[in-house]
Sequence to fold (366 residues):
Amino acid sequence: MKYDYLIVGAGLYGAVFAHEAKQKGKTVLVIDKRPNVAGNVYTEEIEGINVHKYGAHIFHTNDKRVWEYVNGFAEFNRFTNSPVANYHGELYSLPFNMYTFNKMWGVVTPEEAEAEIKRQREQAGIKEPKNLEEQAISLVGKDIYEKLIKGYTEKQWGRPCTELPSFIIKRLPVRFTFDNNYFNALYQGIPIGGYTKMVENMLDGVEVRLNTDYLENKAEFDKLSKKVVYTGPIDAYFEFKLGTLEYRSVRFETEVLDKPNFQGNAAVNYTDRETPWTRIIEHKWFEFGTRPKTVISREYSSEWKRGDEPYYPVNDEKNGKLYQEYKKLAENEKNIIFGGRLGEYKYYDMDAVIASALDTCSKELK
Ligand code: UDP
Fold:
C-alpha cells in the first residue's frame, strides 16, 4: 500500500484532512474527478475578478479555531454580506431587519415592527410551526413571507414551503435593529486572491490527481491506501442500492458585461415566483472590485438527476430516513471515513465542514 490515506474529493473537507494528515507525517493522495481543486468553493479569475464558479461563498464563522485556521492559508478581506431582495422591482434589505420592516409597512420603531409581526402571526393562527411556511410566518409575518420568502424558496427547492423543513429558514437572522449583515457571525470575509488559492495552499506539497473518478475505478484505488476519506455523495458510493437521495442542482449563466457596475451589490435575490432565476451574483463586489468590466452569474435552481452536480441536500424527513439507512451501511464499511456536505448529506456551511474535518482529524490522526 503506497499511501496511508486516499482522499476522494479536493473540496474543503478533503483539503483540510489532507493538510492535517501530511502535517502528522502521513502519506496522502488526493483525487478529484473535476479538472480543478476546491470543489464547490472553486473560484476562477475572469477579467481580473475572482468568479465563484459553483455559487457564491461568503466565509463566516463564530468558531475562532476555524477562523484562525483558514487565516493560515489566506488573508481575508472585510466583505460583509448584505443581499438585496428584488420583488417585481421593489427592493428590500436582507436579512429581515428594521430596514426591511420599514419598507414593507412604514413602521419606524422596533416595537411597531414586532407588533405588526405579532398581529400577522396571530391572524395566521400558528402556535407551533410545523413547516417552513409556518416557521416563516411566525418569524416575520405573512407579507414578508409572501414577498420575500415564498417565491424564492419554492424556486430554490422546487417544493412547496409547506413540505420543507423549518430549519432552512432559520438560517437567516431576524433583527429588530438597522443591520443588513446577513450573518450573525463574529468573523466574516472573502479570501483575497480567491478560494482556489486558499485550497491550493492547504494542499501545498500534497500529491493531487485531477480528472480522476474514484467510483469508476474503486477496486484499483482501494489497493493504494490503508484508509479512504470519501467526500462524494454517500448514495453514489453504495451504487444507489437503497435508493437515490435528493439534491438540488444549480445552473449558472455567467456573463462578462462591458460596464463597471451592473447591480451595485454582490447578491440580488429575485424573490418573486415569475423571474426564472433565484439570484444574480456580481462577483466583483465580493472584493471591492475596481475593474472596468463586471462579471455576473444568474443562478437557476433545478432538481438534481444523475450526472448533474449536486449542490444542496434536501434534508427533509424522507431523505433523512434514507440517509440514516446509508449511514448504517457506511458504519459497517471498514477503513473509510465519509465527510463533507455530500458524504454526510448535510446542508453544511464552509466553517462547519472545516470544523468537522478538524474534529475527525484529531480523532483519526494520533
Ligand atoms: N430565503 C428566502 N428568501 C431570500 C433568501 C433566502 O426565502 O431572499 C430562504 C430560502 O428558503 C433559502 C434559505 O432561506 O433556501 C436559506 O438561504 P441562504 O441564503 O442561507 O441559502 P444559500 O446561500 O445556502 O443558498
Summary: The chain has a mean pLDDT of 97. Residues 267 and 281 are 5 Å apart (CA to CA).
